[in-house]
Every structure is written in structure tokens, then in C-alpha cells.
Amino acid sequence: MLKIIATGNLGADPELRYAPSGKAVCNFSLGVHSGRRDPDGNPVTEWLRCTAWEAKADLCAEHLRKGSKVLIEGRPSAHSWTDRAGDARASIEVTLLSVEFLSPRPDSTRSHEGDRRGSAPGPDSREWRRGDAPAAPAAPVATELDDLPF
Fold this sequence. Notes:
The protein is mainly β and 150 residues long. The chain is 11% helix and 43% strand. It has a five-stranded mixed β-barrel with strand order 1-3-4-6-5. β2 (15-18) and β3 form a beta hairpin. 14% of the residues are buried.
């Protein structure tokens, strides 16, 4: 299986639609720095068209906005066509297998419990996205030589 892993920022708000079968589908464009520079020395950005289905689509539509930073993993497919001006065009589309939100949660999706302006940022994005509890503190380390197991 061909797989792509990339980190980048959304170029526009995601678009949520529903297929005739009722399945949610969310599309967004992802700008990824290629590591190359143009002749003027400016960084080159490659654009991926990403598609998430079902539960991933709902999560992406709810939590992502233009500029959000994400890490994606998915199956790529290349498409080429000729535009109206007669120029050859190409794009890479990625059907997402997983997506990790790297930006803080947008304000519009936070609960409405009081005014959160000026408060400390919420938990890191991986915690709120996955719903994991914070890790337990590490066990104390033995400091006396008699306590070492060897």
C-alpha cells in the first residue's frame, strides 16, 4: 500500500458534506512546505487535497479552521487535467487514514462555561482530541544502593 505522512496548515476552512448514502465527507486543502525554494529564494509550498470520511469527517469539520496545523496519514492519488486556458494541471489527493490536530482547539468549539478570554490554554491538542487522561506520574526512582535490583 502506498502511504503519505505530512504536516501542514489548512489553506481554507474545511467543507463538510454528506454522500447520498448519508456518510459524512470532509474536504480541505493542506499546505506543506516542500523544503525547496523558488528562484527568488522563497519557500515552495505543495498543496494536498485531503478527504476524511465518517467519524473523521465530523471531527475535522468541528475542530479545524483555516490555518490549523495537522499531521495526516493517508492513501495518495495523483490527478491531472487541462484547465480552461489549455494549461496542464496536476494535484495530489489524500484519503485520510488518520489525522492528528496539532493546533489548539478553536474558541467556537469550547464549552460556553463563562468567559475564557485571558485564561490559560486548554490541554494539549492530542489529549482533547483523543480524550485520553493525562499520564500518571512516574514511579519514584530508588536512590540507595541496597534498593537496586542487581
